[in-house]
Design brief:
Elements: E1 3-7, E2 63-65, E3 73-75, E4 80-83, E5 86-89, E6 94-97, E7 102-105, E8 112-115, E9 120-124, E10 131-135, E11 149-153, E12 165-166, E13 177-178, E14 188-196, E15 201-203, E16 206-207, E17 211-216, E18 221-228, E19 235-240, E20 244-250, E21 257-260, E22 266-273, E23 288-290, E24 306-313, E25 331-335, E26 342-344, E27 347-349, E28 353-357, H1 360-367, E29 374-375, E30 378-379, E31 387-389, H2 392-403, H3 414-417, E32 419-421, E33 432-435, E34 466-472, E35 479-486, E36 490-498, E37 503-512, E38 515-522, E39 529-537, E40 540-548
Parallel strand pairs: 1-38, 2-4, 3-6, 4-7, 5-8, 6-9, 7-10, 8-11, 9-14, 10-14, 11-17, 14-18, 17-19, 18-20, 19-21, 20-22, 21-23, 22-24, 23-25, 24-26, 24-27, 25-28, 26-29, 27-30, 28-31
Antiparallel strand pairs: 12-13, 15-16, 32-33, 34-35, 35-38, 36-37, 36-39, 39-40
Length: about 550
């Protein structure tokens, strides 16, 4: 029996990504951006990121939300929300936020949005009409810590005692619990969203982050997210297994990517940009800061995320910036307390120090346990020292067999990397972090390490349930038909990616019968070029290339 699915370009819905299927987009380049082609297509920040939120006019609120959300609720395009108090989305409710909505956190009442376990947020903006969570203060007087930010709590595993804990900074209650046994839990969708000026101290010395993820599961969709001017960390993960692509941490106060309590997700394409005048007076400010848990125990699940293609630019920028007296900037990468973090294909520069492996247990995860890998990275020569470990017995071994032996380089300079415009004279100006032709970062990336586990977009995987896929016509101008042959009834997801690996559409996410079915995809609204259709079935996938001709 043949079933026809006639769908136009569909939005991404909660639960649309399977953590065991294709995730990584292979690149030849290191860092978050390719060599420029002088079009917006190769700059994934174009159109939705904001480099001057301090002075942006966000308009006056059209509605006030000050109490908990307990039933399915939609904030429609054109709405400007005045968010007062700590607002919990609870009772398994779904909060849907349409493109262009602006949420302004109220400073006086510590406005904070918390998505509790079992509830969902579906906030899917677009590249031309993003969703903005920002300060309720006026343009020109906004600052880090104006409001509480976005907190998302899920049912994934963590390594805290009993596997359930309460997120820091909020009063202990059932609404602040995170954790459980469901690593495939879904807390919804965040796509093309900005979070600005969050990080208020809800309790003494307990600031919230830009976005806090508490045991968020792998079926949650995260992509194209910018956190700016946060009063604590940009992104912090407490356990769980959620993945993300296209993250920007811009001029935040403490750490940019903070990993704790057994988080095991994957991140590809990340951008860290620091401001020399913004560091955490209460402690160290680092690009990456990762712990297994607060005591450095060997508790499982271990903090074991994987990062690839990160451009990590610290406060010294291109070397012309002198750090102010009393600053607390430290390291590009700070791995400690028995964490097992892998970082690939990335560029780190402009911090005081490079990668710091603090304790013997963390070093052993690289040298003995083989649970962490640092490979194909550039630690630029403007940082000194570039590789540090406190365990003298492992220092030489780490440097010779792990650092240089895994194709890392500590001799390149900012000039050799040759970004198009990574250091505008004014940090509020629009930058361009793509590479110029001839950049030393333009080649040398690799995705052959077993940590990538073959989960590459464009690479065919095991097809136990999927007997055959075909696509026609190819090239196409209008409608495309994707013929899928299944050996048995299965859940099927069809994702469409452009040549940069950007997810542009999801024509299908539902159960299909065995046999041959046709999925219709409307290509009339996308530009001419090369695209990939990835068909995901029962944890396996197949990718088919196609061309749109106009």
């Amino acid at each position: 029996m043949k079933k026809i699915y006639s769908l136009a370009i569909a939005s991404i819905v909660a639960g649309s990504l399977n953590a065991q299927t294709a995730f990584w987009t292979p690149t030849t380049y290191k860092g978050a951006f390719p060599v420029t082609d002088n079009t917006a297509a190769t700059d994934w920040t174009s159109g939705w990121a904001n480099w001057d939120p301090e002075n942006t006019n966000y308009g006056n609120p059209t509605t006030t939300v000050s109490s908990d959300i307990t039933t399915n609720t939609t904030w429609t395009t054109g709405t400007i929300v005045n968010l007062q108090n700590k607002v919990y989305v609870k009772n398994n409710a779904v909060l849907t936020i349409q493109p262009g909505v602006i949420v302004r956190g109220d400073k006086a009442t510590q406005g904070t949005l918390i998505i509790t376990k079992g509830a969902k947020i579906v906030a899917q903006g677009t590249s031309s009409n993003p969703i903005v969570f920002t300060s309720g203060e006026a343009a020109g007087v906004r600052a880090e810590g104006d409001w509480g930010g976005l907190v998302i709590l899920g049912k994934g595993q963590n390594n805290q005692p009993g596997g359930v804990a309460n997120i820091e900074g909020l009063a202990v209650s059932s609404d602040t619990e995170y954790g459980g046994t469901d690593d495939a839990d879904s807390s919804g969708v965040l796509s093309y969203c900005r979070v600005e000026f969050s990080g208020i101290a809800l309790q003494p010395n307990k600031e919230t982050n830009g976005i806090t993820f508490g045991s968020v599961g792998s079926k949650t969709v995260l992509n194209h997210l910018q956190v700016s001017f946060g009063g604590d960390d940009g992104f912090e993960w407490f356990g769980g297994k959620v993945d993300a692509k296209y993250l920007i941490s811009f001029r935040n106060l403490d750490d940019d990517f903070d990993c704790d309590f057994g988080w095991r997700g994957r991140v590809q394409f990340g951008l860290i940009i620091r401001d020399s005048d913004l560091s955490d007076a209460a402690g160290d400010s680092n690009g990456f800061e990762c712990d297994n848990d607060a005591t450095g125990s060997a508790a499982f699940p271990r903090t074991q995320p994987i990062f690839s293609n990160v451009t990590n630019i610290g406060p010294k920028r291109n070397g012309t910036v002198t750090l102010p007296a009393g600053e607390k900037f430290e390291r590009a990468i700070y791995l400690r307390r028995n964490s097992a973090v892998s970082i690939f294909n990335s560029i780190h520069t402009s911090w005081e120090k490079g990668i710091y492996i603090k304790d013997a247990g963390t070093v052993d995860n690289f040298t003995t346990n083989d649970s962490a890998v640092f490979a194909n990275n550039l630690l630029l020569a403007d940082m000194s020292p570039r590789v540090i470990t406190l365990d003298a017995n492992n220092s030489l071994s780490f440097y010779s067999t792990i650092f240089t032996g895994d194709n890392n380089d500590s001799t390149n300079t900012v000039a050799q990397v040759a970004w198009v415009n990574a250091f505008p004279s004014n940090l509020n100006s629009t930058p361009d972090y793509r590479l110029q032709a001839g950049s030393t970062a333009a080649t040398g990336a690799s995705f052959t390490d077993p940590k990538f586990n073959g989960q590459l977009i464009g690479v065919e995987e095991n097809e136990a349930a999927l007997s055959n896929v075909s696509l026609f016509p190819n090239p196409a101008k209008e409608s495309i038909s994707i013929a899928i042959n299944l050996n048995h009834s299965s859940d099927v997801i069809v994702n469409i990616y452009d040549i940069t690996g950007k997810l542009i559409a999801q024509p299908l996410n539902e159960n299909m019968n065995s046999g041959r079915s046709i999925v219709k995809f409307d290509a009339s609204t996308i530009s001419a070029g090369l695209y990939f259709a990835t068909i995901q079935v029962d944890g396996t996938s197949k990718t088919v290339k196609f061309v749109v001709a106009k």
